[in-house]
Each structure stands twice: as structure tokens, then as C-alpha cells.
Amino acid sequence: MSKMLYFVKRKVCLLLSKKCRPIYCILLSPNVESFIWTRYICSWFVGVCVGAILWLLISLNFNFSLESEVLISVSIAALVGIGFVFTTSIKCISFLILAGMAGKSGRSYLRALCFAYIITGPIFNLASNGGEVVRVFACATTLTYNLTKTRLDLMTKPFHNTLTTIKDDFILVEKSFDEFNGVLQPIRTEVSGTDNDSNLKLQRRKVEGVAERVQKNYSEKIKTRCKRQLKRGERRCRDAFENAYLDCNEKFPRVVKTLLCWPFQVDFICHINLLGKPDKICDPYEALPKNFGESYAQLDDSQKLLYGNNSHVEVKYKIKSPTPKDLLRNADHTADLLMNEFNAKRKMFDVVMNITQKILSILFIKVIIAALYYHKKYLGDINFDNVYISEYFHRVDDRRKRAKKSTVLPLKKFEKKNLVDLKSAWQHTEQESRAIYFYLFQFAMEILAASLFLLLDYLIVTLLEIIRIKSFVSYTQKGEHIIHFQVEGSGLMARLLRRTLHNFNIHAKVSTYLSNETCLPNPNILSKSFYLKLVATYAVIIILIYKSSYFMRLRRLICSYFYYKREKKRVLYLYNNILRRRRTLFSAMRKTATSNVVKQKMRQRYNLILRFRLKWPKCCRWLRCLPGSRFKCLICNDLEDNDFIICKNPQCRIGYCYQCWRDLGVLCIACQTELKSIEILDFYTFFEIV
Fold first, then answer.
1. 476 strand-pairing partners
2. Coiled-coil ranges per the record (predicted)?
3. CATH number, span 595-689
């Protein structure tokens, strides 16, 4: 595959050099003295394009105004374009920045960009949905309060009307009490008063109780009145006889009037008690009830209780509550406080997240610093990143080969692990493979953390959607609320009751439609474009991690194009350095093998699968498909293959790959046993011989 790509590249370069040589020379060749102004214009145009691309990469996570964005982008594009015209360093560094976006610094920037996406996406969405939950709670609280208050008002309206009109009603009650007092006053005068026209005064004696005193006093009063009436009748009788006698004397002559008028002088008849004795006649025992005193005392007490101090009555009422009034808040005020508190914390959270987002966006500076560092080290340190077997390296080796001098190609396997042959540039070295696995694992943890935020946001959105669909409630209520108290009668108490109870009469029609639609949650859902953008960025990062070694090799290619003389020096230095190390290659291989002997022995002792295979080679032949049951080369640590060489010493059993065995010689480094590839090329044949 690598040979085919190399062949295609060579053909493309030859085609361009033949068919498009003028354009190639103007734009790409570093040694063209002609077409100066054309090269300047083309360089400026390319610089402007590169500057625009750099600005797009920088502004991925910044929110500038349109004027600021245009001003900054034009400034950067113009500066980079001018730099492309006059300096090679600006060209090299600009392209290194673009190549660095595919390297570790660029991946760090893209990972920071993904984290910024997570902040502006699910994290902000979680905060927004949290605010929606708070709004739903506040709205539900207000709705419940309003419904409860409506029902309570309907139930307590009669009592409220009674309390609000009680002062006006009390004036009417006082008038009723005055009427009651007007009715009761004659009774009190009759029972407790004295007769002014009588010379007989009632003797009040101390008795045990008010009722007995009233009963006794009123009995004596009735008896006294009765006797007074008898005396008044006797006096009227005498007056009648006297008046009749005088009239008779005036109308008749003297002789006749003596005979006729004498009966009118018989007034002693008035003293005769024809009905009986006065004490017997005036006895009130039968006329006055026995419980008259008790009834009068109760009536008098009731009148004093109802009417006493009625002119100073003040009606006051208040609602007692165990909670102080200043600590009470209505539902709307509570909801507003809850929303204000949440909004304050949300504002603080947004500020922190925005600052974090901007700090992560500034990580693009790390890419620029990495490009400047590589540019400086490339020009200053000849050993820096000088591990590539380039085309010029092959030409130098071919030239030495034609001159019959010592060459370094093909490379030994022991040397290949530290060098990169650009003809097989699509292959990873062992160190690069380990780095790729480490970065993939590290990035997988970041993806897992981001997935947790996305999953949490999805769960909350789903829960709010379920609540919105399943919790919708609406109902219509129609009817009449009628309370009517009817008090029959025309007496004082009937009027008092009607006056008191008329405020409890209510006739209200109920026709309401209620729903909790405004209190249902409206979750914020992340758009599909956000998921596509996030997944695309993650996919780009994964590709960059897996192919990072290929993209990072572009840095050397960029620097070699702009500093081709420096690249030739680096290639010659690398070639000479390999020649010098080739002289001590055997010693280096033996040193590496000696340091790996202990590791190999420990692996054979503690690797159970490998022990099973060593002990029962025929039965456990199938274990060879497992990487853990294979031997490793003592020098390069490659796993066992079909050409693997095993030491025939049963106490050693150290393995070598074919290339390392060929470079090392015929002696086992661990036990100094002579190795013969013909005898022990097959692992199972070796154990049969032993």
C-alpha cells in the first residue's frame, strides 16, 4: 500500500512538473527569480486566505459583534498576507499552525471547544430546565392558592358580610332593645313601683332571694290595692247617698221630702261587707302565680344583660394567627421570591460558565505557541524531530552505494523502532501506537463525561415532557350556591333573628372553566444541529488522534519546504549519525537483550497461559492465537510469528525474531547456546527434539 502511494505521488509530481511547470514554479518553487510581482500577489492572496482560516479557527467559540468581527478578521488577514509577502518565517509558522490543529495542541483546542459546546448545550439547558421546574412549582403554588381562596371566599362570604355590616345592624338591634325596654318598663313600674296616691307604703323586708321578695312585695301590693278599692267604693257609695238626698230635698216639698228622702240617709249600708271580709276578698293567692317572682327576676336580669351599657358597645374583630404578620407572604410574593432567588443564582452560574468558556477558547494560543516552538527548535536544534528517512536520504544512500561506500539502507530492525521511513509513512511506530491508545482512552473518558451530561439533560427533558402530557387537567364547574334562612314570627326575637341571619342568605351562580395549562412545563430541547456539531467535532478529534502521527509529520515537510538547505543539513547529520551508531549496533543490541532477560524469565514464570503452552505444546497448540501465550523477541519485543527462533536450551527458552537473530548472530545472549535456524525454526518441532 505504501509503495503504491509513493508511486502515485511520484507520478503526480512528474505530471505537474511537465504540464504545469510555470504555475508550480511561481507558487511552490523556492528558487524562482522571475515573476517577482506575480509571486508577491499570489503570496499575499494565499496569506489572506490562511489568515481568514486562522480567524475562523480562533472565533469558533467567541461571540463578537459584526463590526468587531469584520475589523479583527480583516486585520489578521491583512497582517498574515503582508507577512507572506516579505518573510518566510510567517509563511512557515502559519502553515505550522494549520498543521498543529491536527496535533496535540490542536486536539486540546478542539477538546476545549467540545467542552465549551457541553457548557453552552446540556449544562445551560439543565439550568434552563431547572428554571422551568422552579416556574412550574411557583405557578402550581399560586394556582393552588387561588383555587383554595376562591372556595374559601365562597364558604366564608356570609360570615364576611355579617362582620362587615354588623355595626349597621347593631344600631337596629339597639332600637329593638329600646322597644323591648319600653315593653318591660311598665311591668317593672307595676311590680317594683309604689302607689303615690296611697298613704300606705309597702314595707320591704329582707328575704332570702330576689324572687321571694318580688313575690311577697307584689302580693302585698295587690292586697293593698284591693283594700284601697273597697274603701274607695265605700266612699263613692256614701257620696252617692249624699248627692241623692240633696237632690231629693231640692225637688220635693218639705212635707213630702221628709217621707220620701229619708231612705237616702241610710248610708250605713255602705259599711256592710256584703262580699265578705276584706282580708279574704283581697287575698292574691289564687290570682297571682306561685312562680311570678321568679319569672319577673329572670325577665329583669335578661333586660339588664341585653340592654345594660348598650350605648358604649363597639364591635371589633380580627383574625388571630400564631404566625407574625410580617412573616406571612402570599402565594404570588412567594413565587416571585423563589424565581428571583433562582435567577440570581442562575446569573452567577452563567457568568462562571461564560468565563470558563472564554478561557477554554483562549487555548488556541497553545497551538500558536507549539508552532513557534517547533519552528525555533527546527532551526536551532539539529537533533529535534530528525528521525525521518526522506527521499533525499535515499538519494544520499544511493550515491554512497554507487561510490562503493558503506550504506545504512536497508535499516536494521533494531533501528527501525526509532526511525520513520517516509516510503511507509502510513505505518505507526510502536511508541506512536501506545500514544494513540492512551489518547483514545483519555478522550473516551471525556466522551463518557459529556454523554452523562447529555443523558441527564435527555432524562430531565423526557420527564418534563411526560409531566406536560400526562398532567394536563381541565374541568368546567357550573351550578348555584343558595343559602336562605327564613324566620317566621312577628315578635321581637323573630325580628332580631331576621336582622342577624339575613346576611347569611346568599345566592351565587358558579360557572368556571379551570386548567393548569399555564403551569405545565415547557422544556428546552437541544436542537439536532447541536448534536450534529458535537458528534462531528468528536469524530474529527478521533480521526486526528488515530492519524495524529501522519499529520504531525507534515510539520517537518512544511519546514523542509521553506528551509530546504536546513533540511539537507539535517538529513546528512542523521545519515552520519546512523553510520556512527551502526558500528556499535551489536553492543547496543546485546545491552538491550541483557536488560530484557529478567523480564522474559518473569513472563515465562508468571504467565499461566504461556506455562501451559510450554508444558503441553501439542494439547495447547490452539493457545497460540492468544497474544498473551506467544513468545516475545528478547531484543525488539515483537510477538512470535512463523519465523520465530527459540533457544533449544530447556533452562533458557528465550525467543528471537528472525531479523534480530540474523543481526545478532548464532549465539543466544541469555545462555550462549548456539542457535541454528534450520533445526528450530518450528516451535513444535523444537519441543519434539528436546
1. 513
2. none
3. 3.30.40
